[in-house]
Amino acid sequence: MPELRKDPITGRWVIIAIERAMRPSDFKTKEIVEEEPKAGPFSEGNESQTPPEILSYRTPGTAPNTPGWWVRVIPNKFPALKIEGDLNRRGIGMYDMMNGIGAHEVIIESPHPADSLENLSVKHVEDILWAFRDRFLDLRKDARLKYIIVFKNKGKEAGASLAHTHSQLIATPVVPKTAKEELEGSRRYYDYKERCVYCDMVAQEIGDKQRLVLENEGFVAFVPFASIVPFETWILPKQHSSDYAEIKRSEISYLADALQRTLKMLDTVIPNVPYNFYIHSAPLDNLRLPYYHWHIEIVPRLTQTAGFEWGTGLYINPMSPENAAKFLRKTEGK
Ligand code: ZN
Question: What SS3 class is residue 45?
């Protein structure tokens, strides 16, 4: 029997087609032709090919927009939203609109084209995660902005246009729909139970172990009960916190460890797996929330979203979350 499972946060139902008992090898990823990675606009030495940097972590004494950096943040050359101008919110009859104010930045994660989040040192991954925090703290000074999302597209199928390892940040003048659904859902749960739904989930997944992927001192990774796609994995801080930028330098090593190990596990189960991940954090006008808990969602792109999903918002996941977690756990130490 297929199962319908309900996400306790958003109330979204998912069809888990467990009968198919799929194995990782059932998911075909495009074969990647191993060629010498070429230097491009994100490579060291080509700094003049990008807009001037906003932030970089670099060797002392080296000038901005020259070599010597290991993490570099630049404005997106083709931004979805722009920082200059007024919001000018207005109506056209019954329709609402405003100007496309916001920020769109690229976090270049390494100066070398052959690197990946999976093979960088943990210390380097810490710096990337710290750069996200630095950008959160800087952009939230702008009162026009209501929400910041950091996301990564890895692989063509996941929307990456350049192979050179990078992530992006978009700050928006509105709270996006998915964030709103999570905020409203977790608030309903809190009003009813007086507990954070994510804290409850962390406790249950650590206790249950069935869907657990890994755990360290500060963070836990698990496959959510109502995952929408095979091998979807969430990473959450064990301690309640609604605001990503609250993370301390002493905690970032645990996050870097949890993220990198999870990505390595995924890549071992399905080599060259295309994926998206994103950080969901509190909206900027309400950063400290007892009912919301920031987290990272990793969504491998192995299935296609087709008519049924588009038309209903109901997903069919052909891999049971318990099996997905088992396959991921088995890779450690291989
Ligand atoms: Zn919590």
Answer: coil
